[in-house]
Design a protein that fits this description.
The protein is an alpha/beta fold and 162 residues long. It is built from 3 helices and 6 strands; from the N terminus they run αββαββββα. A hairpin with a 5-residue loop joins strand 4 and strand 5 (98-113). The longest helix is centred in the last third of the chain and has 22 residues, at 138-159. The protein is elongated.
């Protein structure tokens, strides 16, 4: 009898531990594959659209929660538009010299179901990439930081609906 109870408990423990598991905190995304369209750019920083497109694709590939596919094979389509870009002074020294700048970018993103155009979500994101005026550059560290923040926000919104 004792042996039967122990076996039953072991089976219960084994079966309860074999449920589905996902590395995505929310379980599954609303779709399994996405096509990332070339981001539009409504600013004078001509490379921002290209850089954001590449960064978002790289983030999806690295995360591997949602597969990036060609437009005719994807369940969803992600479209983005860079709507504003500014570089503003962020920090000053005692002589009123700028010591840090902030690259400020606003981005509108929409994800829709492929072929139906039903919107899954749409949002405007904003981020600032701060860089040291004496040792770093706007085109390098400033833009890299703001792109990294925007990309993380897009990935989180897409794969972690919490």
């Amino acid at each position: 009898m004792k042996r039967l109870v122990v076996q039953a408990l072991l089976i219960l423990i084994i079966v309860s531990g074999c449920g589905p598991y996902s590395f995505s905190p929310s379980g599954k995304s609303a779709f399994q594959s996405v096509y990332v369209a070339q981001f539009e750019n409504n600013t004078i920083q001509y490379e921002m659209g290209d850089r954001l497109t590449d960064a978002v694709i790289d983030a999806f590939v690295l995360d591997n929660t949602v597969q990036v596919k060609e437009s005719d094979k994807a369940e969803a389509v992600l479209n983005g538009t860079v709507i504003s870009y500014r570089r503003d002074p962020h920090t000053f020294d005692q002589q009123d010299n700028v010591t840090k700048y902030a690259v400020k970018v606003s981005l509108r993103v929409k994800i829709a179901k492929a072929n139906t155009e039903d919107i899954i979500w749409e949002e405007t994101f904003y981020a600032e990439g701060v860089y040291d005026a004496n040792t770093e550059t706007e085109e390098g560290e400033g833009q890299d930081r703001v792109i990294s923040l925007l990309t993380a926000d897009i990935l989180d919104k897409t794969t972690k609906s919490w």
